[in-house]
Amino acid sequence: xxxxxxxxxRVVDPAEGRDGPADVLIxxxxxxxxxxxxxxxxxxxxxxxxxxxxxxxxxxxxxxxxLREPGQTAKExxxxxxxxxxxxxxxxxxxxxxxxxxIDNAGxxxxxxxxxxxxxxxxxxxxxxxxxxxxxxELAPIGGLKRAGVVAITDDGRCVQNHELMRxxxxxxxxxxxxxxxxxxxxSLVSDGVAHEGVWSVLLGLRGWPAVGETLMVARDILLAELxxxxxxxxxxxxxxxxxxxxxxxxxxxxxxxxxxxxxxxxTDAALAGSEKFWATDGTGVWGMAGRRDLPHWPAYDTRxxxxxxxxxxxxxxxxxxxxxxxxxxxxxxxxAPHCSYEKEVEFDYxxxxxxxxxxxxxxxxxxxxxxxxxxxxxxxxxxxxxxxRILGVDKGTLRPGAAxxxxxxxxxxxxxxxxxxxxxxxxxxxxxxxxxxxRAVMTFVxxxxxxx
Length: 453
Ligand SMILES: NC(=O)N[C@@H](CC(=O)O)C(=O)O
Ligand SMILES: [Zn+2]
Ligand SMILES: [Zn+2]
Fold this sequence. Notes:
It contains 16 helices and 18 strands. The protein has helices spanning about 35-40, 80-90, 105-120, 140-150, 165-175, 185-190, 200-205, 210-230, 240-250, 260-265, 275-280, 315-325, 340-345, 360-370, 375-385, 385-390; strands at about 5-15, 20-25, 30-35, 45-50, 55-60, 60-65, 90-95, 125-130, 150-155, 180, 195, 210, 230-235, 255-260, 330, 405-415, 435-445, 450.
């Protein structure tokens, strides 16, 4: 296996408390040395790459991805989804179980792991279901799922409504040392809502989806985490009230964590009224966008802005930004949710929820947190590395010598524009086409192999 020497980059490894210029030597799939020793130990046939101006980071982990296998391969496959991940700077993804059939038994876990071993460009970790068929009625075989290799359980896309069943799920998950990831959503409050319940849903005539529909279930999960001692991780937080509850619960030492997604820390519900209204009312919230003339245009009711949970008010977005910056929200994840064009090209009401995200998360996170001055680079990188690694209990997210060489090299200042022609995903449902982006993955290594470019 080829050896690599990455020279002159800024190595930022929050796990090791390292931030500064250093060379990195990769050999036999592992990190061999970082710093002075790297050049000294470098074998003569190693490929040397000058990465001056770039950041060398532990490989980024995206713990919320829909790869759509088995059963929905018109939207995405393990091969295309992980190619998009590699290109976006991710070296590891956790795939969600809302496939067809769902990942609620050991056989399906084995199938995905085998296909991933053959076809994936990055590591694929599997999340199993909490309940059979994600139906919320009967527990899935949690012990069997664990033995088959899942790293967590979730009914993502759905939320277990029955609190007693959820309590038992947490008790089992704790026995098997699995975190429970929850798509926090009270179905009776959300009902058939399609857009954040607020001024824009009223003006646009879209059925409202109240923030409390999420926050109520976050509260339930905190109480059950306290009762059972099981780690509960709240997925894709979107509402200010949810952030406040998680902050307070973590202060009390309850085993709860949370993630946020780029669309919730970049967009607001004004985007549903079209680009003119969005930029007029909220454009200044996105770092570097104020006053720019090269911004894209989109019409009102554009279904690329429809996702679950919905993009919310400017106040909610601000709370998410604060929560990420102060560590309440320990993880950033994409919730990459590909859908076919024919499914999205319908009236807003009828379109499926979800947007792609693997190829734009890195620049959007850099813009909103690093270029804006809200966070240091090390703290931001931690949200994509040590954060998810800790919650999933996996030995990843560091450049320590001896660790597997999963590495993300990115240029934090590269300016570029994402286009639909240019994606590696099978789907085209990103709201961020045409946006002036800042920051780009330039090279991705998985277990010492270059997987991008
Ligand atoms: N986020 C979404 O809007 N959609 C996801 C489901 C989910 O993550 O809840 C999907 O599978 O399409
Ligand atoms: Zn979800
Ligand atoms: Zn999801």
